[in-house]
């Protein structure tokens, strides 16, 4: 589910783990703290502390940056294409 969160801090790379942004999210089960690595953000740039961002909060307590809206339209377009193709094939077979 998409929830609003606040960037509370940045954590530097440590022991092979990437640099992360620490984000506080008000989840339905209570406040949660998520770490999202730097490479997940557009341009590999972490948002500044105190910035409000939308995160995709998972029931397991993990967060990720939601996909860009363009990728959702791409998936939608592919679905429409296959639905129309399937419908056309069925119509063609029924009218042979």
List keywords for this structure.
single chain; 96 residues; alpha+beta
Describe the structure in your own words.
- By secondary structure, the protein is α+β, with helices and mostly antiparallel strands.
- It contains one helix and five strands, in the order βββββα.
- It has one helix at 69-94, and strands spanning 2-11, 20-27, 30-37, 52-57, 63-64.
- Strands 3-2-1-4-5 form a five-stranded antiparallel beta sheet, with no helix packed on it.
- Strand 4 (52-57) and strand 5 (63-64) form a beta hairpin.
- The longest helix has 26 residues, at 69-94.
What class, by secondary structure content? alpha+beta
Enumerate how many helices there are, as a single number.
1
Elements, N to C (H/E): EEEEEH
Helix content: 25-40%
Strand order of the largest sheet: 3-2-1-4-5
Largest sheet: 5 strands, antiparallel
**Overall strand count:** 5
Unreliable residue runs = none
What general form does the structure show?
Answer: elongated
What is the terminal-to-terminal distance?
Answer: 47 Å
- On the 0 to 100 scale, the average pLDDT is 85
Estimated share of beta-strand residues: 35-45%
Radius of gyration from CA coordinates: 20 Å
Secondary-structure blueprint of this entry?
Blueprint: E1 2-11, E2 20-27, E3 30-37, E4 52-57, E5 63-64, H1 69-94
Antiparallel strand pairs: 1-2, 1-4, 2-3, 4-5
